[in-house]
């Protein structure tokens, strides 16, 4: 039995054609892992990426580190909007990998603020490849002092 994911059968997903906008990230790390895409769905932020060969692990599956990266970024960007643009730092990130992802699939993160205090933002997100749930995650972001 070969449990390595094969390339997605469907025609390559084009995020721009589906109303997604590329996030411009002026960092070397952002360039390395991206592009990351964003759009609103029913007033809720969504973030995603197309699985490329650079995102695969040695077994040919999407690397869990890429899922963690997008989970962290999507929740942080959502927390920043929810707090009026305040800067944050991730202080806790928990992730559960519940499904594999294939080369060429589009992975979408659905983050939400659970609770915000004066100093912390509690977040959760679910990530999907198509309609398949592949990740559940939650975390805490520290609101940084300005100045």
Task: Give a short synopsis of this structure.
The chain has 147 residues and is α+β, with helices and mostly antiparallel strands. It contains two helices and seven strands, in the order βαββαββββ. It has a single domain, classed as Thiol Ester Dehydrase, Chain A.
Give a verbal description of the structure.
The chain is an alpha+beta fold. It has one domain: Hotdog Thioesterase (Thiol Ester Dehydrase, Chain A), CATH 3.10.129.10. The chain is built from 2 helices and 7 strands. The protein has a 7-stranded antiparallel beta sheet with strand order 1-2-3-5-6-7-4, covered by helices on one side. The chain is globular.
Kindly state the number of beta strands: 7
Largest sheet: 7 strands, antiparallel
Radius of gyration: 16 Å
The average pLDDT value, as a whole number, equals: 91
Query: CATH topology, what is it called?
Result: Thiol Ester Dehydrase, Chain A
Distance between the termini: 57 Å
Keywords summarizing the entry:
147 residues; Thiol Ester Dehydrase, Chain A; 17% helix
């Amino acid at each position: 039995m070969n449990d390595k994911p094969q390339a997605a059968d469907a025609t390559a997903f084009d995020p721009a054609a589906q109303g997604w906008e590329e996030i411009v990230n002026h960092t070397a790390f952002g360039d390395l892992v991206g592009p990351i895409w964003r759009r609103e769905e029913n007033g809720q932020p969504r973030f995603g990426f197309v699985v490329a060969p650079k995102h695969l692990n040695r077994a040919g599956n999407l690397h869990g580190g890429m899922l963690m990266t997008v989970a962290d970024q999507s929740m942080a960007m959502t927390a920043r909007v929810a707090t009026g643009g305040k800067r944050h730092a991730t202080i806790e990130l928990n992730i559960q990998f519940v499904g594999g992802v294939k080369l060429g699939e589009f992975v979408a993160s659905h983050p939400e603020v659970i609770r915000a205090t004066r100093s912390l933002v509690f977040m959760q997100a679910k990530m999907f490849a198509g309609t398949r749930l592949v990740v559940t995650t939650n975390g805490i972001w520290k609101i940084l002092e300005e100045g």
